[in-house]
What does this fold into?
Amino acid sequence: MIRRKNIIAVMLAASLLLTGCGSKGTENVTDYGQGAGSGSSAKDTTGQSTEGTEGKTEAGSTEGSGRQAARNGKTLSDQLGGTTLTRTTDFQIGNTVAKMEINYEVENDSPTLESYKLSAITEDRVHEAETVKALLGDSAEEVRGNISCTAGDSENAFEKCKDYYFNYGDGNPDSAEQPSEVPAWTDGEKSYLHTYQGKRNGVDYQLSIYYLKDEKTKAIGFGPKNWGDAIGDPQLTEMTRWDGDVIFVKKRGERGAVEKKPEELTDKENHAKLSKEDALTAAGKMAKEDLELRLQKEGICQSRRAGIYSENAGGTITVNDEDKPAEQLIFYPESSVDAQGFPSATINGYLLELSESISGQDVVMRGFSEEPGRFNAGNILVAGGDVIGFNLVVSVDFDECLSEQVAILPFETAMDVFQENMAKEFDVTKAKGRSPVFRDARIGYYPVPSPENPDEYTYIPVWDMYIYAGEAYCVGQVVMNAMDGSIILMEYGE
It folds into this structure.
């Protein structure tokens, strides 16, 4: 049965170094590194699939072949041949009848499909000393004892320390108990956690950084010890966010939340000194200059795809007000949790998110593997006139944009190639005596490992779909190169 894996502890954060795309023109990227063996493809690439492993596949230009990739310069739906795409048919895998039940709706009709060269976050990319210096300057000092959720410590830093304690330290991740304090500094053989405190803009802040050596992933939590200090009102000790519908508030250190309605806010004006667009710019600037992170061209958004800061386009802002608006930050005193209405609360600032998509298409997750995911996630908090905190998990740097527009196969061609590959490569015994059914197909992005360097990857557009034994039991996952139809990954469950 499929195991939906928890990639890294808690994904709460973001930051940004937006790299410029090297090629502005049209090109097909070659040598995509590792795949689970390539069966039939639009350029007749051949190979052999290996269960649960990845072997080499290449993708190149398909111009001149019998199965041509769509011309570049078109939207995703133009390349695929429509916005509502279906394939319902039976086909043979040996003596077994298999089914294709594909119903795909293009939700985000991307005008471009980019490809990127990536690197895992090796220890030399953690930049701990540089980050501490940039955020806290000469005031930084180590926190070697415990950190608490109730004793005047930063809520963001505490949450990162708690993540580490439960998932990589001495804590029991299955425990229902929530500790009021956890270690702030730990040096382990395969991981470490370091916490610092100091002044930023005259306000007391704390910063927690942990690094996982095997997963090659770092996580950072940063925020003021008292939320209100960051916006000039110390009595506002707590902070939450409002998504335009419901506000959930709680006392520091307690698990239960109280539901508040927006109309209970006395003052509904957002008192942030920055506009939404300027908030995006401030978040991008901090990530680039203070955190030394490298993300995709459009990396920080107001909410999922609602607003984008893009340095590649000259620092321009794209805001789509028809999408969900940016979540707003609400600061309040602890007494407001139990009070009638929501007295003394104020709206000030925005919660920004790290985009978990490339060219508007989601990153594909491996459902049957314990390997770490190669993507980044999290949030950045902007209030008053500056970034006041963030929580982030980073497992990859986007080193280079290889192409701003790659060509992919039309839908019908891609599905033809997929059926041919499955007829040759799918292990029918994994269907447990039932007819294998291929469905839940979608276009996404997958990090293909380099055959020369295990810490280097290429993000390319792919078809991702799941394999069912009968109608309900998921037994596998297939990832296919959307550019030439070669199989990148085929994994089976237990």
